[in-house]
């Protein structure tokens, strides 16, 4: 299958290792991965803060850039949810491209029919299900199924896993005290697991969690689950 990578702004600018991990993983599984260089922001920040008219040019750009690809993979639950859920409501003609856009675990499990990607990661890991993946994409246990199949991994359950980490984009800025309290709860639960790594589908959430863990002196390192599957943390 020829797959196009939509890397997203946060990954492109701050976490490029995640994009490289997705490419390495899919190529290892025998698939061709394209990276359309004309891609830009998906417009989520604009749409979520009420600037829907300003988001429309970005929606049109996405549709134009990715129109010819069989599948589009997004290593971000929030950006994948923007494309799949919001695009067709902002621009009806975006529906066809939106339907071919997948968060990584959806592409692997539902489209490619893979759960064991041949990874090896001999470390203790816990998994935080980020809100967009959990509540909008309804990823369910797809990321966990992929992680459970990793050789050598000690995957431990995160208490109160479905509670938000408190990031929520501008929420963490506009409601800093509430966000900080939510983050403290999440960091406490992660510390209880004794995990060396906390994995998730969204680097934005992981940046928030990673900062909280570092300030508390908790040893767990935040890492995108694609990097565990690719063996590149």
Keywords, separated by commas or semicolons:
single chain; 233 residues; alpha/beta; Rossmann fold; 2 domains; 4-stranded parallel β-sheet; 8 strands; 52% helix
Helix/strand/pairing category? alpha/beta
Spans with pLDDT under 50 lasting ≥5 residues? Answer: none
Number of domains: 2
Q: What is the CATH topology descriptor of the largest domain?
A: Rossmann fold
Number of helices: 13
Query: What is the CATH architecture assignment of the largest domain?
Result: 3-Layer(aba) Sandwich
Quote the average pLDDT. 94
Counted beta strands: 8
Instruction: Measure the end-to-end span.
Output: 26 Å
In what range is the share of β-strand residues?
5-15%
What is the highest CATH level, the class of the largest domain? Alpha Beta
Overall spatial form:
globular
